[in-house]
Structure formats: C-alpha cells, structure tokens
Amino acid sequence: MKVNIKKKAFGTNVIFSDFSLSIKEGVTSFIMAPSGWGKTTLLRIMAGLDDDFEGSVDGKSGNNIVLFQENRLVEGISVLSNLKALGVREEECIDVLSHLSLYEDRYKKVSELSGGMKRRVALSRVLLLSGDRYFLDEPFTGLDDDCKRETALYVAKKLSGRTVVVVSHNKEDSLLLGAVDTLVLGE
Amino acid sequence: MKRYISEKKRKIFLVVSIVFWVLFWWTMSTLIKEKLFLPSPFSVLRALVFLFPEEEFWSSIAFSSSRVVLSYSFSFLVAVVFGVFGGLSEKFEILLSPLVKAMRSIPVASIVILVLLWVNSRNLSTVVSFLVVFPILYESVMSGVKNTDPLLIEAADNYRIIGYRRLRYMYLPSVFPYLENGIKSSLGLCWKSAVAAEVIGLPLHSMGSKLYEAKVYLDTPSLFAWTLVIVVLAVIFEKLAFLLLKTIKRRVMR
What we know:
By secondary structure, chain A is of the alpha/beta class.
C-alpha cells in the first residue's frame, strides 16, 4: 500500500505537504508521532474515509476496518448488543469478550463502563469483523499497563497475518503488538 | 431545580390540594346557587351515579375509546415509518413539510368541519385525531433519527451495519427518548381532539354526542360528569401507554 499526499489542509492550516509512505501487506506497521501531528488524519486518508486531499493512495481497495480514535459505541444498550449489531454470531462475540476480560460485563450498558472497558468493547467490534486491512487509532487509550499488555497480545494474535496499521503516540505499543515496521514521524 | 419536599410529603400535599380545590368548587357553587352555571360536586357525583347503570353510558365509552385507540395506533405506525424516512432523507422531509406544517397550524375546529365533508361522522374523530397526533409523533421520530451521532453512523458505515441491524441498534436507541416525549405530548391531545370532533360531528352513541346532549338540555351536572369521565379515561390510557412503553423500552434498550 502506497500513500502519496501532495497536500492536505484544513482551511489554511496545512497538515501534510509532499508526504509519502508505504505499508507492507500482511504485517503490522506502527506509526508513531506526537500528539497533534496529524496521525488521525493520515489514518483516515489511508483507510479511505477522507478523500479531500491532493495526492493518491494505492492499494486501499477492499474492506478497511477502522478502530476510530473515539469509541463510537451506542451508550444506551448493552455491550453484547453493540457487538450483535455487527451481524456476527453470539458465540463469537462471547469468545472475544472473554479474551478481553469483558465476559462478566456483557449485559451491562455501555454507559455504565469505565473508559478502559469502553475502549476494549470498541476493539472487540473491530476484531469481530473480517476485513482486508485494519487501521487502529490509539488502540489502547485508557487501559492500565497490565490490561494493555493482555489486550495487545490478543489483538496481535487475532490479527496476525493481516495488514494492520496502528497509529499511536506511545512507542511501547509497537513492541506489545509485535509490529514489523515502526515509523517514527514528526521528530 | 432542587426539590425541598420529599416524595411522600409531596403526595400528601397533592391530596390536600385536591381536597382544597373541590372545597373551593363546592363553596363557589353554594354561593352561585344555580346548578345551570356551576353544579355542586354532589350533583355531579349524583349525575355520574345515574349514568353508571345505563347501557348507553358504557357503549359510548366503548365507541369513543375504540376510535381513540385505533386512531392513535395508526398514527403511531405511520409516524414511525415516515419519521424514519424523513430523518434519513432530507428530500423526503422537505416533501412532507408543507403537509405537516399545515396539519400543525390548522385549528382543530377547521379540520373537523373540513373532514366532515369527506368522511361520515362515525369515523370523523379517527381522522381528526390522526391529523392532530401524526405531526407530533412524526417530528419526534424524525428528530431522533436526525440526531443520531454522525460519528456513530460513520462507524456503522465502516462496519457494514446496514438494514434492520442499523435501524435496531444504531437509530432506535437514539429515537426512543424523542418518541417518549412525542407520546407524552400527543396522547392527551388525541383524546381532546377526538371528543371535540364528536361534539361537532355527533356520531350516535359517542361521548361527544353525550356532551352535546347535556348542553342542549342544559343539564350541567351531566356535562361535568361526562367531562370527568373523559379526563379519567384519558389518564387511564396514558398510564397504560406508559406501562407498555416501559416494557418495550426494557426490550429495546438492552
């Protein structure tokens, strides 16, 4: 996958100019950059969610699954209902929830969960879908260290052999996910 | 606003307030001394007791209530379907907007007389309540759909959540609170407009025609008694509807 951005701007604020990047298929790539650098913008361009820029992205066709920066869950319904909305079998949902230590909380409303738990529900949703590529935006926001390690291992296992792009400001996440390529940008 | 009175004390105070107003009514009626203008609470109660054993009383209640239920259910179904379309498509919303605005702003009395030209008086109240209730429910469903978080919708697009699952899990939880408010504000109106339509259309064996008869015969105690019956029925229906809504909510929001 090749990304070539001649220019991306929000109004007069230019985010990228003459920026290019290539992503290996079938492995996990890790893009690290400080906050405010434009990680989310880059991820959205790569995933095909944002085409308001000058340049091109080659090899983005197919089903790109995105873990958004925000959790984007339906707060008023249960964890399980949020997953069932995907149209996957309940046993699969239960399986993923158990691995992310959310089994006990499956009937709880999302609004009753902590930030870290919500993040794991959002991750579960992504892991339940089969896509051609996965784009994860700060996947472990709000998770404490132990939980983060456990979660990262499961994510790495579930998505092994797939094309995964992770953006984060935390270098440690790269090791936890066993990323093959690590790009440090904005330094 | 902060409440300073506890729930239990509020209830007691409410009962005291009701007693106060009934006493006030009774005092006024003894001062006026003319049953025609203001009957005493006792004469209204007596009129009510005389109504109870009459078959006509119960058949009027059955006639009018069944029409209210029919009309409300129909309005509800149409409003949900159209509201979803209106919320999803701006063109559809614009297409319906003149009609909905007209329904909202035309006085009930005009609607009644107009509709009387088209349908017979037996079905008049059904049509009139529909015209009153539909815009309220339609707009509440539409606002709910429109106010669904756009970030959530983007996620639903990305995760291919479409069709029934999209309506059930993405839109419905957002629509529900709006729908609840819509029901709260339209249920009472449904009764009021149905009775108003009956008073003008005078279908046989309806509560509206009984109100009218009471007026014609200058039987004010009966007029009050019927009014009381209508209010009580409206309250009962409201309670039943909320109970039903609560059950549905428990099933939807899980």
